[in-house]
Design a protein that fits this description.
By secondary structure, this protein is of the alpha+beta class. The protein is 48% helix and 13% strand. The strands form 6 sheets. Strands 18-17-16-11-20 form a 5-stranded antiparallel β-sheet. The protein has a 5-stranded antiparallel β-sheet with strand order 15-14-13-12-19, with no helix packed on it.
């Protein structure tokens, strides 16, 4: 009789526990979605707008077509690409040009390229980065839940703890370098965006394999490891090491001898992706590992790249870089605070080089503690919790992914190149470690009073909001790739919100410096030009220093800017010779066919033939007979630069750069258009476009003129 009374009670207890677990999962999902929803507008604005004046879901910066062109090559059964597709980024092997970027993003593009081709607006960079952002949120959320189960089992999940996980995921997606990656949608940042998403997916999968190995979990994790290996080699190798570490643990563990039958499959999902990535690397460069840096086109046209390789024994990696990179990425003072809105930006000067190391390039770079205070603090505590002798629950098993994540950071620390985007290589480690840190913090607060729990939660909220605000502001730091429209809109906001501080940064001069601290403004005496220093140094690229590329134009007067319409009357295949569209003294810009479907622009007589870069040729653009194309020519003697842009008729701020070249002449500009009497017989008609007169009001207001 006693047994019959006990069974219903046990059943009720089981039902109660199941109900609490179900309620905890629902609460967890609800707060995660709320956290994602809170940062989505910030991220979407940075990715699709960022002072462009309108949301543009196809927004991209050059170079952004490498993955698309590689997808086209793969559809044709090979990996080599046309030299014009890659420019200075091309690696030459066996007479062919290859990109060092992985094939995974190209695989995603292949269905679209097969249908829409590579011409026109076939640019998928922003959409690909956004998809990677969504998967990062999904995988990191599932990772947190799995880590909590390993640390605390099915312990009750309260409202404040669930809300804290929502804040954590919001910090991953909106309070980290992930937002900075979105500010510049080009191939370099797309590579990092997918590296983060795939690495977190792999770590989540491996924890599932450790918890309860099944064929489905192993196969799914293997696919993610393969994708990570085909995207970014350093992140892929970290994932491979993690899989091999789990396989070794299955073999040597005495408490889990039943897992030995899974050793071969787990090792296989590490070895097979490694072999595939090595095979692709060998097909491209003749090496299973690494890159032949001397074979890159940039090494042939840039003397500093050759000096950099010579100083480091032909390699781009060296332990001599470690003091400088550690200082750049971990110094909490690497951030600039000023009285100009949004009051926070990247450092105004270049990173400090410690010792006698010769670096390839360096850019103004923020640090992890300065931009991600919440994630950095929780990450440090998570490392302590994981690596201490007796971790809570099964957290000791997290070491099999945490240590490879640490190894994955070695590449950027030993690489002779410093830039803010490289903080992305730390994100897999930060996400795993900070998740463990918050889970342990929640466990320790469980027995404390309500005031302590609410105080800790308030601290999380404040630090989370600080991270989101700082990263949004840092992402709004202009670079040399910003358009004049973006800069003008930013300065308009800064003038409205912090005019006095902004005016103090303006200098009136007839001669622009080649470098100045970021944020410094320079205006010509007549306000025909207004320029903002981006803080980037081009001393190692003489041609670009001649163009004053460290000075971004905000306003350029009508004497510098010329809008044209170009209308081909016949297909490109029937065009012959060159068409002159612009003349500035002895310097001319001509357009001529470069393929059966595309034309290119070329500069003749620029005035400095001894400078090998930038070259006289520009990008390629497809033309269709009978269509009218908007082209803008900007010849600015203050900068010493000549630029030619193809423009989208609707979105004029989002042009395709065709030429970015230096000029030395200050002779009057003369635009060559097709005479009316010859337009009926000309193969290409060049006419004056809509005259857009830039206003000097912003410049006059800032200089009190």
């Amino acid at each position: 009789m006693t047994e019959t009374l006990v069974e219903p009670v046990d059943a009720l207890d089981d039902l109660s526990h199941d109900h609490l677990r179900s309620a905890g999962r629902k609460r967890f999902r609800r707060w995660i979605l709320l956290g994602v929803a809170c940062v989505l507008p910030v991220y979407a604005y940075v990715l699709f707008d960022l002072f462009s004046g309108f949301p543009y879901f196809n927004r991209a910066l050059g170079p952004s077509g490498f993955y698309t062109y590689q997808a086209s090559s793969m559809l044709h059964g090979h990996l080599w690409m046309r030299p014009s597709d890659l420019g200075i980024e091309a690696f030459t092997h066996a007479g062919r040009s290859y990109t060092y970027f992985g094939v995974f993003p190209s695989i995603l593009r292949m269905p679209f390229v097969a249908v829409f081709g590579t011409h026109g607006n076939a640019n998928y960079t922003a959409g690909s980065i956004f998809l990677a952002w969504i998967l990062t949120g999904l995988f990191s959320s599932m990772l947190i839940w799995r880590l909590r189960l390993m640390a605390r089992g099915h312990a009750f999940l309260g409202r404040l703890e669930a809300a804290s996980y929502g804040i954590l995921v919001a910090s991953f997606l909106g309070g980290s370098v992930i937002v900075f990656l979105a500010a510049s949608p080009w191939v370099y940042n797309e590579d990092f965006a997918w590296s983060i998403a795939l690495s977190i997916g792999v770590f989540w999968g491996l924890l599932g394999v450790i918890d309860s190995p099944t064929w489905g979990r192993i196969a799914g994790t293997g696919v993610l490891i393969l994708a990570a290996s085909l995207n970014r080699l350093t992140a892929g190798w970290a994932c491979v090491i993690a899989a091999l570490a789990v396989g070794a643990w299955f073999w040597f563990s005495k408490r889990h001898t039943g897992n030995r039958r899974w050793v071969a499959p787990v090792v296989a999902i590490g070895v097979i992706p490694l072999v595939v990535s090595c095979a692709i690397n060998y097909a491209k460069f003749g090496l299973p590992f690494g890159l032949p840096m001397a074979d890159q086109v940039w090494a042939h046209v840039n003397a500093h790249r050759r000096d950099f390789l010579a100083a480091n024994g032909g390699k781009a990696f060296s332990f001599s870089f470690l003091p400088s990179t550690l200082n750049a990425y971990l110094n909490p003072l690497n951030l600039s605070i000023s009285g100009v809105w949004p009051y926070v930006q990247l450092p105004t000067t270049l990173p400090k080089i410690i010792g006698s190391a010769t670096f390839d390039q360096s850019y103004p770079t923020a640090s992890i503690p300065a931009t991600m205070p919440l994630l950095f603090g929780l990450g440090v505590w998570g490392l302590v919790c994981t690596l201490r002798p007796r971790p809570t629950g099964r957290i000791a098993e997290v070491r099999f992914i945490l240590i490879p994540a640490v190894i994955g950071c070695a590449g950027v620390l030993l690489w002779g190149y410093i830039a803010s985007r490289y903080m992305a290589d730390f994100m897999p480690l930060i996400i795993v470690a900070s998740s463990v840190g918050l889970i342990d913090l929640a466990r320790r607060l469980e027995g404390r009073g309500r005031r302590a729990r609410r105080g800790a939660f308030a601290g999380l909220v404040v630090l989370g909001l600080l991270g989101v605000g700082v990263n949004a502001a840092v992402s709004a730091t202009p670079s040399s790739s910003w358009s004049k429209g973006q800069l003008a809109r930013l300065l308009t906001y800064q003038r409205a919100l912090s005019r006095a501080a902004l005016v103090k940064k303006v200098t009136v001069t007839e001669h622009l410096p080649t470098w100045a601290p970021a944020g410094t403004l320079y205006a010509t005496p007549t306000c025909s030009g207004l320029y903002r220093s981006n803080g980037e140094s081009f001393v190692d690229v003489p041609g670009q220093q001649l163009e004053h590329l460290g000075m971004s134009p905000v306003v350029q007067g009508p004497e510098y800017v010329h809008d044209l319409w170009i209308t081909p009357k016949v297909p490109v295949s029937q065009l012959h010779g060159s068409t002159t569209i612009f003349r500035m003294g002895a310097t001319r810009v001509v357009m001529r066919p470069v393929d059966r479907w595309a034309v290119g622009f070329f500069v003749r007589h620029p005035g400095r033939p001894d400078v090998t870069w930038p070259g006289p040729g520009g990008g390629w653009f497809p033309l269709v007979a009978g269509h009218r194309y908007a082209v803008q020519v900007v010849a600015d003697p203050n900068l010493g630069s000549l630029q030619v842009w193809w423009y989208n008729k609707r979105f004029r701020d989002l042009g395709v750069p065709m030429i970015d070249h230096f000029i030395t002449t200050r002779a009057p500009q003369h635009v060559v258009t097709t005479p009316p009497t010859e337009r009926s017989t000309a193969d290409v008609v060049v006419t004056d476009g809509p005259r857009v007169i830039p206003t000097g009001r912003l410049c006059r207001d800032l200089t009190a003129r």
